[in-house]
Amino acid sequence: MTNQPGALARDLLTETAIRQITARIIEAPTTRNHKLSNTSVTHQGYIFVTVTLENGVIGYGEGSTLGGPRWAEESVEAMKANIDAYLAPALIGQPACLLEDATLRMDRAAKRNYTAKSAIDMALLDALGKTLDVPAHVLLGGAVRTAIDAIWALASGDAAQEVDEAQAMLDRGWFKRFKIKLGFADPATDLARLAALQKALPSGTTIVADVNQGWSEAECIRYLPVLQDLGVSLIEQPIAAGQTGASARIAARSAIPIMMDESVSTLAEASREVRAATGTVLSLKLCKHGSLHNLKRVAGIAAAEGVQMYGGCLLESSIGAAGHLHVFATLPKLEWGTEQFGPKILVEDLVQDSLRYEGYQVHLPEGPGLGVTPDPEIIEKYARKD
Ligand code: MUC
Ligand code: MG
Questions:
Q1: Residue 151 Cα, ligand 1 centroid: separation in angstroms?
Q2: How do 308-311 and 40-53 pair as beta strands?
Q3: Would strands 281-284 and 308-311 be described as parallel, antiparallel, or unpaired?
Q4: Which atom of ligand 1 is nearest to the CA of 237?
Q5: Where are the alpha helices (DSSP H) in 6-113?
Q6: How confident is the model at residue 2 (pLDDT cuts 50, 70, 90)?
Q7: Is residue 361 over pLDDT 60?
Q8: Which phi and psi (to 5°) does residue 32 adopt?
């Protein structure tokens, strides 16, 4: 970089120079099959990134996928290849303290690849926080909340099992807000699941219905009023991302707020979708926005037009979930809470100090950097052996 910042209190430019970046593929089993309109998951695929600085500090980051390159275009294999060949070489020797510069360098080295970039960005922030002995959120403006209402996703496709699972989450005090995945069966079957759930839950329970782009505009015209009758609070991405006109017509006629998910990744998409009024709530996820600072920028574009915020996930372990919580904690508003439930759907979490779920909230980890410590034995156990 030209014009590097001059006198820093400590020589962070030298101290935080990046010595090494490595990426490993992790395949961690889930406690049950998680079904979406376009994929089904029994193992979570993560890219686990380790960044080593010249001062010896090590930072960790994670990028998540859902059932291969089906929810989004990146696979764990593609992420590893692009990190090894393009993203890591672009950053070696550069100071981790210049997070924005690192993002620019990664953008020049590779188009999109937002999950891979956000995993590296998270690891840089973890290493920088540990170097400065501050939690990651301090480097993002500082937390305005330390606990966030937590949402659990039901997606086995078996109505009775889903009711039991929701009850177990309530009993444990972990989750009292729920998301249900629709769009993978015919609408009548989906709606029967939803009806069973609504009957079992206390009235007034927040229920989010995520169709994952599974319906057409015609199906939305037919079924959205039924979702309203079944007490759904929020409808997520009912039709294909990019069908902006149809999405705006659906949002205009829906009595329930529509949440944009797959349709908003970049700043330009945020601006386009918000101006077209395709939704009034936005799901934020690092795999879509490419860095923690970019997530804040996307949120800002949407918030400027009054769009409400929802803390999304892609079933991250406590590593990726902590990355999300640190940035979600700094948003001025987060009206819908967060669905960072990944740590609780894994057979074994990837860290020694799992996130705390208590009082139906997930709590921001304390300690420097992300505030979680990967468990080397678990990482080794689930790392793909090539
Ligand atoms: C999505 O589309 O929201 C997050 C939770 C879940 O069950 O699926 C993911 C992706
Ligand atoms: Mg979604």
A1: 11
A2: unpaired
A3: parallel
A4: 2
A5: 12-15, 76-82, 88-91, 99-109
A6: very low
A7: yes
A8: -155, 170
Mean pLDDT, rounded, for 325-337: 98
Antiparallel, parallel or unpaired: β 40-53 and 18-35 = antiparallel
Provide mean pLDDT across the span 116-131: 98
In which band, very low, low, confident or very high, does the pLDDT at 1 lie, cut at 50, 70 and 90? Answer: very low
Name the residue at shortest CA distance from atom 10 of ligand 1.
314
Rounded Cα distance between 126 and 308, Å, is 28
Other CB atoms within 10 A of residue 385 CB: 5
CATH architecture of 5-133: 2-Layer Sandwich (3.30)
pLDDT, mean of residues 181-193: 92
Among 30, 212, 287, 344, name the best residue to mutate to test ligand 1's pocket (greatest count of ligand atoms within 8 A of Cβ).
212
Q: Please give the Cα distance from 385 to 4 (Å, whole number).
A: 41
**pLDDT (average), residues 3-30:** 87
Q: With beta carbons less than 8 A apart as the criterion, state whether 85 and 66 touch.
A: no
What is the distance in A from the centroid of ligand 1 to the CA of 314? 5
The CATH architecture that domain 139-372 belongs to is Alpha-Beta Barrel (3.20)
Amino acid at 246: A
Q: Which residues contact 85 (CB under 8 A, 6 or more apart)?
A: none
Considering only CA atoms, which residue is closest to atom 1 of ligand 1? Answer: 314
Pairing of strands 177-181, 151-154: parallel
Q: Where in the chain is the domain with CATH 3.30.390.10?
A: 5-133
Looking at every residue in the chain, the average pLDDT score rounds to 96
- Of all ligands present, the nearest one to the C-alpha of 261 is 2
Long-range contacts made by residues 192-196, C-beta under 8 angstroms, separation at least 24? 192/159, 193/157, 193/159, 193/162, 194/227, 194/230, 194/232, 195/230, 196/159, 196/160, 196/162, 196/163
CB of 70 within 8 A of CB of 132? no
State pTM to two decimals: 0.97
Q: Which residues are known catalytic residues?
A: 181, 339
